[in-house]
Amino acid sequence: MSDLERAREQIEAARVEIDRIDVELVGLLSERAGHVLAIGEAKNVTGDQIYQPDREARVIKRALEANHGPLEDAAVQRLLERVLDEARRLERSKRAEEFSPSTGS
């Protein structure tokens, strides 16, 4: 087998693994979103704000402590900030849905 063929096989094998990991990531993100929705429902009862910067700072800090590369901390922080942004968006949209006039709430 030539170096070119070996390199192409390595690329394909790595892409298969990336595809598998992507599916796993989506599953984990969906599981996380379910917990976000449950927290949002509880916040509706407690009156807590959706955006809680202290909590988000702790989440990011914990993630950075768990990061051992190869992603730089700044990259992990940006990714997690996006996840947190989407979590807040999900909470807001669910809250708006629950309190919209069409639901009778």
What does this structure look like?
- This protein has 105 residues and is an all-alpha fold.
- It contains 3 helices and no strands.
- The radius of gyration is 20 Å and the shape is elongated.
- The protein starts with a helix and ends in a 7-residue tail after the last helix.
In this structure, how is the largest beta sheet organized? none
Q: Got a strand count?
A: 0
What is the 3D form? Answer: elongated
Order of helices and strands: HHH
Helix/strand-derived category reads: mainly alpha
Distance between termini?
Answer: 68 Å
Which features characterize this protein?
105 residues, mainly alpha, 3 helices
The gist of it:
The protein has 105 residues and is mostly helical.
List the helices and strands and how they pair.
Layout (H helix, E strand, L loop, with lengths): L2 H44 L6 H14 L6 H26 L7
